[in-house]
Design goal:
This protein is 30% helix and 25% strand. The chain contains 10 helices and 18 strands. The strands form 5 sheets. It has a 5-stranded antiparallel β-sheet with strand order 2-1-18-17-16, sandwiched between helices. It has a 5-stranded mixed β-sheet with strand order 14-5-4-3-15, covered by helices on one side. Strands 7-6-13 form a 3-stranded antiparallel β-sheet, with no helix packed on it. Helix 2 packs parallel to helix 6 (317-332) and helix 6 packs across helix 7. The longest helix has 28 residues, at 2-29. The radius of gyration is 25 Å and the shape is globular.
Amino acid sequence: MIFRKQLLLTCSALLFSINLLAQELESLLGSVPNQEAFWAITVLDENGNNLESLNSGKLIIPASNQKLYTLGAVLDRLGSNFTYTTNIYGKGELRGSTWIGDLIIRGSGDPSISGFLYEDDREFVFKNLLQQLKEKGISSVKGNLISDISYFDNEVYPVGWDWYDLTFYYGVEISPLSFNNNAFDLVVTAGDKIGEAPAIRWYPEIDDLTIINNQKIIEAGNKYDEFYRRKLGSNKVELASKLPQGYIEEESLSIENAPKFFLDSFALFLRKNGFSIAKVSNKNVVCLVVECTEVLASHTSQPLSKLVKWANKESDNFYTEMLLKTLAAEKQEIPGTFENGIKEVRNFLAEQGIDTNLVKMNDGSGLAMGNYTTTENISSFLHSMKSHAAYDIFYNSFPVAGIDGTIAHRFKGTGLYNNLRAKTGFITGIRTLSGYMTGSSGRQITFSLATNHYAGKLKPVDASHQEIIEYLYKKY
């Protein structure tokens, strides 16, 4: 009887403590400026026990926190040492130094054929491939440059991506043969007279790209007014921004027909480096074994661990969706689809003990409309990853407060500096932040914080998020 009384007293004290913690958190959230928004938070200790929660079981839009699910599944299913191999096959024969016949480039889904993982050398892979062709004695091709994109299906956008986003670097096509994140890099310099059009330059300068420069230079001191729009189904891009005199703007804008963009860019590179090639074909082929036996050049990507690190730290939608389709292609041995990739992610989440009834995924990156989960699911997933074989790689892929990634400029001058590792998420009206940190007492904390449907600007929401995370840091 005495034991039962002690147990009841202990349980009562614990419930009182939890209620008190909830009241403290509710009091803090009651003082933040965005009272029109929906707030949710779940905080776990090092053993996965609940420390604090508010609306933790309610559905939220995760934005880029969705990447955590996808990247965790990719590491689990493919392994951190997985690499991509992009091959150039020869269909023909070599006569002298001329290849008589076609070159077929088979896309393997590699998202990293750009400069991001090669010290900003966007042509690093192209140089590697050209060198191998030269070593084979080939200096010209009388035939076509053709793509094989059979590794993925023909859907280039996930369900739920907004048409407006499709102009920009974060809403590009997903294709197994991709270059420069399927975007061209634009530099606008407003150095001339007021009222005139600013100077522009872009990379790569392929012919299949029409840029209409309707921009204007306005008086210095005025606000930069951005306007870019690519006509859907084309590579015609209108620029209509207003730039203050002396202003320099850099932007990456999407392209149409990613495989041809790769071939055009590669052909332009070859010709600039003294390699003659007849033409680029707009058709795609399936590279049959009997046809594609001779590999003339090959590139192997860096390991998956580095690709995941880039995707997570930089919140790269393109990398994440490419990895999602790769996951589907590799595990099901059929052309990769968004739908099948999502099925693989959901299966992995279920294995981690996550309630997938409360996980709705239309894409892997979180850009799509119609994605839902809970902060309880996200924090529980992060805790479950601590016992996963790839946890160190997963953990080290997170942005570090005040150091790098999407929180490189946040949390400086606080106890969270170089302590907090957290994934950000943002789409219009949505802000999320989830990750790991060490509290002031040395306790390891896992958390997920979401603000949905806020009005106004992002800065006040970020300030509130910092206040909440600092509160948790000081308390624990």
